[in-house]
Amino acid sequence: MAKKGILLVNLGTPDSPEVKDVRKYLDQFLMDERVIDIPKFNRILLVKGIIVPFRSPKTAKLYKEIWDENGSPLLYYSQIQAQLLQEKLGEDYHVELAMRYQNPSVEHALSKLKTGLVESIKVIPLFPQYASASTGSVMQLVMELVSKWQTIPPISFVNSFHDNQKMIEIFADNARKHQVDTYDHVLFSFHGLPERQLIKCDHTSAYCLKKTGCCETLNDTNKFCYSAQSHDTARLLAKELDINRDNYTVCFQSRLGKEPWVQPYTTDVLKKLAAEGKKRLLVFSPAFVADCLETIYEITVEYHEEFKCLGGEHVQLVESLNDDPRFIEALAELAV
């Protein structure tokens, strides 16, 4: 009997923490027209001439800090998620894992589904909140690759799962392990995006960053907005944990370049909270379904050290979904 194909896609990771592999990863990642959405000639000059040559050695050092006996944490947890999902769904399904950048590649995973003679393919980008630079990029690549096949099976995509109840419960339970009430403030720190990318997603051209509080509640205009979906995830988590609105902040990390990105920036929030006398911060990073460089190092090490230098005492990361069985259940529900 023909099987149903499931393709899980996460962002990606270098093949090793060595500079040459980090360079390959950054080059593929940053040359994506949806990630750095500027004219191709300008993107080539910026990425290949400036960012990759100067950033690769620095980024390689950071990857070496988080690389362990299992290799890349992002790839390690993603592989476990795919394996557990296959076990959960059973023999009627064929599950493959891909990374949008580097390995295992989307092309290779799709080829395995094709040779497996699946009757359909459902693509689940492992990004809770939709963004053109992540989910949109996965969708575009899959469609480009499959469009070259002579026979194309039915294909569908999961757009986002920012409000998935099981995801909310896992993050909340992970936070409870750290005794939420013992912290002075809670941060929901999402990966950042340039403001121009949010504006491009506003098909009315009259709402995004023009209406006061445009991202604070979801509506028909901003339902695909990354920032609005991020705020909704934070709202649901705060509700689950009974955190008062005055006691948490939605912010955005990992800014690149000098142009405006989605605000407030996490680093600015750290300064503000330290100036207010806050000492202990609990930080969620709900844009990721597996711990990775942005969580293990950027929050646990960089933000912790930065906050201590500002007069704070401790920054505690709330662990990601990783191999929690409930996340596998959530993926299974998205798959069927």
Total strand count, please? 8
Shape: globular
Strand order of the largest sheet: 2-1-3-4
Number of domains: 2
State the end-to-end distance. 17 Å
The CATH topology of the largest domain corresponds to Rossmann fold
Tell me roughly what share of residues is in helical segments.
40-55%
Order of helices and strands: EHHHEHEHEHEHHEHEHEH
Summarize the structure in words:
This protein is of the alpha/beta class and 336 residues long. It folds into 2 domains: 4-161 and 325-335, Rossmann fold; 165-317, 3-Layer(aba) Sandwich (Rossmann fold), CATH 3.40.50. The chain is built from 11 helices and 8 strands. It has helices at 19-30, 40-66, 73-89, 106-115, 132-146, 165-176, 195-200, 226-241, 266-275, 293-309, 325-335; strands spanning 4-12, 93-101, 120-125, 155-157, 185-191, 248-253, 280-284, 314-317. The longest helix has 27 residues, at 40-66. The protein starts with a strand and ends with a helix.
Helix-strand blueprint:
Blueprint: E1 4-12, H1 19-30, H2 40-66, H3 73-89, E2 93-101, H4 106-115, E3 120-125, H5 132-146, E4 155-157, H6 165-176, E5 185-191, H7 195-200, H8 226-241, E6 248-253, H9 266-275, E7 280-284, H10 293-309, E8 314-317, H11 325-335
Parallel strand pairs: 1-2, 1-3, 3-4, 5-6, 5-7, 7-8
Helix pairs in contact: 1-2, 3-11, 6-8, 6-11
